UniProtKB/TrEMBL annotation:
Protein name from the UniProt record: DUF4871 domain-containing protein
Endpoints of the signal sequence: 1-21
Signal keyword on record: yes
Signal listed as a keyword: yes
Length: 147
């Protein structure tokens, strides 16, 4: 009887361990599907730095990736922090490929009503660090994945 209790305990511990591993794998898979910083504001999924800067793709096919390699897309940009201080100022977006070190100037324009548009394409797949400056001062920085 004692052996049955020991085997039952070991079996229960093994099952709990398996359940924990499965949950961890599911979580990492979800992160892979949503690379970089992804957050929601007013029901919209934005890429950027939460509470500071966010962008959303406006055109393209339904269900396609937010950053499709070689396909120029139009994005709406939201300057979420200190909105009243950035209005009327010039922003600049640069991208740095994390593997090759390639730098690309994505877009530059003025900010109105804490928003702007941008149209750009990334020519290489992989992780890109996006740096946003306002009047040449660092404003936001985040990672995205182009596929």
């Amino acid at each position: 009887m004692r052996k049955i209790k020991q085997i039952s305990f070991l079996l229960l511990a093994f099952v709990c361990m398996l359940a924990g591993c499965t949950e961890t794998n599911t979580t990492s898979t979800a992160k892979e599907r949503k690379p970089g910083t992804v957050f929601e504001v007013d029901g919209q999924t934005l890429y950027g730095e939460e509470g500071k800067f966010g962008m959303i793709k406006l055109n393209g096919e339904s269900g396609e990736l937010a950053f499709a390699v070689g396909q120029g897309r139009h994005y709406q940009l939201y300057f979420l922090a200190e909105a009243e201080k950035v209005n009327g100022k010039l922003y600049n977006m640069m991208a740095l490929h994390q593997e090759t070190g390639k730098k690309v100037k994505l877009y530059e324009a003025g900010i109105e009503n804490a928003q702007s548009g941008a149209k750009f394409a990334l020519d290489q797949s992989g992780k890109w660090k996006i740096n946003v400056t306002v009047n040449k001062e660092p404003y936001a920085s985040f990672l995205i994945t182009a596929e």
